[in-house]
Design a protein that fits this description.
Helices cover about 15% and strands about 30% of the residues. It has helices at about 1-5, 25-30, 50-55, 75-80; strands spanning about 15-20, 35, 45, 60, 65, 70-75, 85-95, 115, 120, 130-135. A hairpin with a 2-residue loop joins strand 4 and strand 5. It is elongated and about 60 Å long.
Length: about 140
């Protein structure tokens, strides 16, 4: 991100993927410096997934508890719209009913494609995530 900001200080930076850690874990909170507070500097990072996990919303379940490994972390200039035409609006875990297991001990968890060697006709062992950004439109002259 530092090299990108040297070229263009207003560029928005997005870090995303299955990070194999939760937002509060050191790899995300300390190494990436992704904060739970949206009011970060333009070249810092905001992680909107802290609040979701605090409310018990996750992307995968392990031993009857939720984790939120599938994160989209955004730079402060996107979080606050500083110097960019884009601004963070909201985030969502796509935990729709058709993506959920409806039977047994994994009821409500993501419906896997395979489990214990059996084909389940599911999608993934993780729910997808998405963030929404709004673009400001310059006034017409």
């Amino acid at each position: 991100s530092d090299s990108l900001w040297k070229v263009d200080p207003n560029i928005g930076v997005v870090i995303m993927g299955d990070l194999n850690d939760d937002p509060q874990d050191p790899s995300c909170a300390k190494v990436l410096g992704a904060k739970r507070d949206r009011n970060v500097g333009p070249h810092e990072f905001y992680n909107p997934w802290w609040e979701k996990l605090d409310r018990g919303i996750g992307t995968l379940a392990y031993k009857s508890s939720w984790n939120l490994f599938d994160q989209i972390i955004i730079s402060g200039n996107l979080a606050n719209g500083e110097g960019s035409h884009w601004q963070y609006w909201r985030s969502e875990v796509l935990n729709r009913d058709f993506l959920k297991d409806t039977e047994g001990t994994r009821q409500g968890y993501p419906l896997r494609t395979f489990a214990s060697g059996s084909y389940l006709n599911g999608y993934s062992d993780h729910f997808p995530t998405e963030v929404f950004l709004r673009r400001s439109v310059p006034a017409r002259k």
